[in-house]
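Suppose you are handed a protein chain with no further information: no name, no annotation, nothing but its sequence. What can you learn? This example shows the usual starting point.
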Amino acid sequence: MNATLLVLHFIGLAMTVGAGFAQGMVARMMPSPPNAELVKVLGALRNATGVGLIVLWISGPALVWSKYGGFANLSTAFSIKLAFVVLLTIGFLIAFVEERRPGPPKLAPKLGPLTGLLGLGAIILAAIAFG
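A reasonable first move is to predict its three-dimensional structure. Written in structure tokens, the prediction is:
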């Protein structure tokens, strides 16, 4: 069971980080006015990021409970990692909402580089927390 949850967690991580980095690269290539094909690519990448986050939010707590008996038994590094993941998820949700509003996004472009750093920080802190 734990191995299956860990595999699912790594798949979610790969989807989230990979699609997130790809979104940043495609967004930098976006001409003004926006190219319709690149907008579709960004939407597909944002969907992949969202699915990856959902997989992470399901598999992560399930792993914590099945392997460690709950969050109380984990280190400070894990708590900081979890805070990074919460902030990363908030950044995704802001971008998700802004994408559906008329006009150009205001916060999402500024949060893009920060979400990349948060994702990298979460990975580093997970390595520290779980050795």
